[in-house]
Structures are given as structure tokens and as C-alpha cells.
Amino acid sequence: MTAAPPVRPPARPVPAAHRPLGGAGRLLRLEVRRNAMLWTLPLAAVLFWVLTFRQSMAYPPLWNVRAMTMQATGVAVFAPTVVGAAAWVGSREGRHGMADLVVGTARPRWIRQLAAWAATTGWAIVAYLGCVGALYGATVWQGAWGGPLWWPAAVVAASLPAFAALGFAAGALRPSRFTPPLIAVAAFLALELSAQFIHGDRSYWQISPLVAGPWEIGPDAGVAIFHPYLPDLPIAQVAFLAGLTAVLLGLLGLPAGSGGRWLRRGAAAITAAGLLAAGTAVALAGTGRLDAHGMITISALHDKADDRPIRYTPVCSQPPIPVCLHPAYASSLPVVTAALEPVLDEVAGLPGAPIRIDQAAATYEQESGNGVGIRAEGPPMSGPSPVYRLLLPNQLPGPTLTSSELVVAVRTNIGRDILADVVGVGRSADPAQQAVMAAILNTVDAETDPQVAAAAARFAALPAAARRAWLVEHLAALRAGNITLARLP
Amino acid sequence: MNVEVSDLTRKLGRTQAVAGVTMATGPGVFGLLGPNGAGKTSLLRMMATVLPPSSGRIRLLGRDPGDYGQRKQIRRRLGYLPQNLGYYPRFTVVEFVEYFALLKEMPPARVHHAVAATVERVGLGDKAKAKLRTLSGGMLRRVGIAQAIVNEPELLLLDEPTAGLDPEQRVTFRALLRDLGQHATVIVSTHLVEDVGAACSQVGLMNRGKLVFQGTPGELTARAEGTSAAGDSPLERGYSAMLAQARS
User: Fold this and answer.
1) What are the C-alpha distances in Å from B146 to residues A163, A474, B95, B99, B126?
2) B103 touching A, CB under 8 A?
């Protein structure tokens, strides 16, 4: 106001905008440029890397596990970050003593608040999409079979506007510098606590965006491989989150002073619609059931086309007994083949031996409480030319096995099953059957009966051709329980 | 008349901040004087449609601020600088002024030019892209003035606008006030009697929530004649005399 020459004002005042939303786009652009969410993006990225990316990458490159892990941990990463940033933005008018300045302006308070919320949400979504892009890109790069699962990603994306609305509303209603950290911690705790109330597959609490499938199973490599990923629960979760967003934003527009009569009526309508959507979604989640393929199915949202198995061409090892796995597990084929090779070489062509080993889908059954029973689909062996149906240990929920752990697990469980079918072990093997199995599986240990151990050592010491010739000649007697330890060579 | 106030009252808790003020004013600069706690800020906040009156009647720019539609029209034509200017520290000068231009629903196509012109007008052209947190108190006050006048308001309400301005800036500001007062109704609440003398065509004096004087600066000066009122200038002596009379 010193050197600048005075600029003459126009003869008449500048006319006001006629469109109520005129300039809202520019307002949004301004909010985007100066939004506090920008400052929390590095924090969100680091948390995502530590808690989501690294954890997901520890699993094999399976879309189902990666996507479901991302949903469960991604929500927990972004929720407190977005809530905190949004609360900071929502409380800024109060914190900076701007109330008098902004109240005396023409644009409705609700529009002003929506612009600030939208900018916060926009940055959160951009950051989240970047994180998803990194994780899914790495999964593609690792050659995962099939395609990305988008519904888990959509649930996290839908949670961001809701968390932003929650934080913004808290900040607007309680404008203090303590509100953002408090509401961020409260949101995180509420989120984590919500999943603890889940009991069984009919729980309403499954609506929590943390839940990426049956809660007690968690991210499971066995689901959405042989059968399509069911979007039933994610659809309900997205509807709930959209409803929650609408309710929270609508509530901001209800008080007198938020805008004109029509704007407030609009806010009331949005609130009512949000309540309806959220309530319906919660009710639908309560009708969920664990289906045989390990997913939550909601009959009102279910598409029967999703029940059909996914067609695939298995990847197989070489004879004498080919091991065929689902292409999603192709990376496990060398390990599984190597684990079963000693058994398969011995039993190939013998009566009771399978002609092929096929990987089977797991089937799931809800048990009492939160228990879930998991077994292979169909009988282990079937048909006149028997095919053994294999359920890999890494198809089951639990920690990822290393290659050596997988070899041990496959040999001691699946190898024993196959061998037991050949030597005819029923409920309990006789000493000769035990010795033959221990010799082939190389499982003699300190707990083995000394006489059985001695016979097993004797049998194992034979050349492979001699062992096989003896088995061909005496298998029927061995299966019938007519071989004693003394008769073993 | 752009401002018509009749028997306006406002209670803040147990305090009668404004106690039956009646006044009317048209285009020009109206100086609102009075000691601390006289009710100037409350009266200005009611005129700025920020604070609803407890009772009485108020019409601004020929419209009723009690009606939402009319209040919105008033706000589009209003500029207001509160006593304590809040601001977003990370906004630049231009962004802050643009923000208020948009909140005042200026046509988007005119915002860019209006903001640039206003920032120049308050002498902050060289600080246009500076963040507000880097500005001095005087510069922040000028940013506040810029946001108030960016929409070329028909009614401009300034609460202690010269607080924090150095003498040179105050002189320039008074010129700006006179300029604005040619087309708009400008109401300036201030402690500084010399501001009123230099820039105002009308002056009101408030004491204990009441408007105890309304007239020209000359008429206020005349109130000191024949009294021993204290003051360094004739207008200050008039102010003191009028205040003493109101308190007696």
C-alpha cells in the first residue's frame, strides 16, 4: 500500500455468480493445492510399505493372497492417516480463528466443507492408487497366474472417503489441535475392535472393511483359485462405506447455517439415503454364509455364474506318475515332484498306485463358533484308473512354508497317504507294512519299534530294482497282512 | 440507505453488547468510534451477517439479512475485515484472496484479474506468492483488507483496519478508504480518531452498547467547544467531550 499506484475500481460492483456451484471447481483446485493430506502422504507410503507391501510380498505371487492381505492391512494403514489429516483440515477454520471471515461469505458452508473434504479424499485416493499400483505391478512382474482382484482394492478405496468424512466431521465439530491425533487413534482402535466381534459366517461385523473373507481364515491361498472370487461381501462393504460417507457428509449439511433450505433438504436426503444404504449393507452382511469354496456368499447379492469353476490347464511333471498342479502353483511343482519322487518311483505301476496326481481344490465348512473345517474336494483316490487328489500344504491358511519345509510336509503327509494306499494300510499298519513304509519314506527314528526299524533298514538297503521286484511279487500278501518282519528281505 | 438499523440489540451472555442502536447511512466512509467494550465489534458483526441480533431491525443494501436468499445476496456484495484476522499460514497471498473471492461467489472468469488487481491495490504485488506465515503483522492486515475488497463490495465493514500498519501505510490506506467510499458504504471501526478525521464523512460514537453520537467529524469537533476535554487534536477533544457527556 505504499508504492503501488491506486487501481480505480469499476463503476459498478462486480456482479455475483448466478450459478450456485459456479467457482466450486476453482475452490476445489485451491484446496487440492494446499491440502494437509499432502503432508501425510510420505507417512502413508512408508506405513504401506512396512505393513502391507512387505507382508504381501512375503506370500507367494498369488492374486488372492496379495489382494486380501492388502485389503486387511491397507485399511489399517490408511484409516488413521486419512482420518487424522481430514480432522486437521476440518478443524482449521476453528483453529485459525477464521469463523467470522468465512461465515460472512455467500458460498454455503456445506459447499465449502465438501470442497475441503473432496481435496483430502482425492489425495488419499491418489496415494492409495499409487500403493496398489506398486503392489499389483510387483505381483504381475513375478508372473502371478490369472488377473488382479479388484474388489478388495475397491473396498479400501471406498473406505477412504468414509474415513475422510469421519475425520472431517470430527474436526469441524471439535476444532482443536488435539482432535486429529485423538480421532485417528480412536478410528484405528474402533476398526481393529470391530473385527473382534465376528463370530461365524453370519456376523454383522463382517461389514468391517478389514474383513477380506472368512475372518478366522484370513488371507488364504486356497480361495479364489479354482473358483472365482466372490464379490458378495465386498459389494456389501462398499455399499456400507458409501452409505457411511453419505451419512457423515449429510450430517455436516444439516445444521442451520450450512446452506439454504434446498441445500439442507439435499443434505437430509443424502443422510437418509446413506443410512438406508449402510443399514441394508449391514443387514446383508448378517446373511452371509461360508460357501464350500472358502468365500462369504450373500444370497441377495450372489451371482450363480460365480459358482462355476475356473477353467485352467494344469502344469504337470514327467511320468512315471505325473504330478499335475494348478498353474497358480506352478512354482511349487519342482519342489512337490522332488518330495514325492522317492515314493512314486517305488510304487509306479503297482496295484493301488495312482496313475496321476492332481491338485484338488480345498472345500470349507463352517464349524461351531469361528472354526472352519478345510479338506480336499472329493475323495483322495477315485476311479478304475486311480487319480490321487492332492491338497498342497500351502493351499491352507497359515504361515508360508519354505521349500525345505514344503518338501518335508509333502513327503510325510502326501507321500505316506499314497504309499498307504499301495501297501494297504487301514486304520493301523502291521509291523511289516510299517517297515516297508519307513524304508521307502526314510522315516525311521528313535520312536520306531527296534524290530521294525531293523527290518526297515534291511529293506531300504536293497537295490531299488530288488525292492521293486519284491514288492511286485509280495504286494498282495503285504496288503493282506500276511507278511511278517522275518519274511522281509 | 445501504445500512438501516433500528433499535438493534445483542446480548452476549449476561452482557448487553449492543443496546438499542438506531442508525442509517449511505455511500461514503462512516467512522465508528468508541472505547474498548463499547459494542463496536458486535455491531459490525451483526452488519456482517455473522452475528444475528437479539432484537431490532436491520436492513443492509435494501435487503433483510434474516432471510437466507437475501442474506446470500448481501454477502455477495459485502466485504468484512474482522478485528482478529484469522488466516491459513500455508496459503499464499494470492491464494488467500482468491479463496475469499470464490467464497463470495464472484464469477470465476473474473476472479483471476480481480485478485491480481486487489493485491496490487493494497501494495502486496511483490509478495503475491509469499506464504502468509512469512508476512509481518502489517502485511497480514493488508491481506485482510485485500480479501475484504476483492469483490468490490457495496458494503465494506472494517474492524480496526489500521492496527499494525505503519504511518506511511496508514496514510495510503486512508486514501484507499476515500476511494472506496465514493461507490460503497464503508463502515470503519477504530480507536484512532485521526483515521476518522482524515477519511470519514460521517462518524458515530458508541458507548456501553449505545450510539451516543452520529454526525460529521466537524460536528463531533464542535462538541468540544466550551469544554476542557482532553485531546491532542480538535476531533480528539470532541470525542472526549462527547464521551464524558454520555457517561455523565
Assistant:
1) 36, 103, 11, 11, 14
2) yes
